[in-house]
Design goal:
With 129 residues, the protein is mainly alpha-helical. The chain has a domain of 69 residues. The protein has 6 helices and 2 strands. A two-stranded antiparallel ribbon has the order 1-2. A hairpin with a 2-residue loop joins strand 1 and strand 2. The longest helix is centred in the first third of the chain and has 37 residues. The chain is flat, with a radius of gyration of 23 Å. It starts with a helix and ends with a strand.
Length: 129
């Protein structure tokens, strides 16, 4: 004798209608869309703040913290994700190139618009639509 899923959980699953399934999928799509929208806002704010810090508008302390490093040994394991990793990944440029670009405010704004407009954020990564 083979038990079905409904037998195992003790409920009658025959009441799940196509309408109910479509509602569940609609809610999931809305949730994913909201998550992507929020990640896009986070990315935009992060890129704008990076330009602000590297131009020196936030003061020297913020730039020192961004460029600083801690001396000593790290414990074994996967390297920790750093704040700059996302920015370098999204832009495809290294820190030095990004810092030079951000010195010109208008050039940096154009770069961030180019980075974020044709793409969406999926699982923390920028992906073309």
């Amino acid at each position: 004798m083979t038990l079905t899923y409904s037998d195992q959980i003790g409920r009658n699953t025959s009441k799940i209608t196509p309408r109910l399934i479509s509602i569940v999928f609609s809610v999931c799509r809305d949730h994913i869309g909201l998550e992507r929208e929020l990640m896009g806002k986070v990315a935009r704010m992060k890129l704008h703040y990076f330009g602000h810090v590297t131009r020196g508008s936030a003061g020297n302390l913020a730039l020192t913290v961004l460029e600083g490093s801690i001396h000593g040994l790290r414990h074994q394991g996967r390297p920790k994700r750093q704040w700059m990793d996302d920015i370098e990944e999204w832009s495809g440029c290294r820190y030095i190139q990004l810092k030079e670009m951000s010195q010109d405010r208008e050039q940096w704004r154009r770069k961030t618009i180019d980075l974020l407009s044709p793409t969406v954020i999926d699982d923390g990564r920028l992906v073309s639509e």
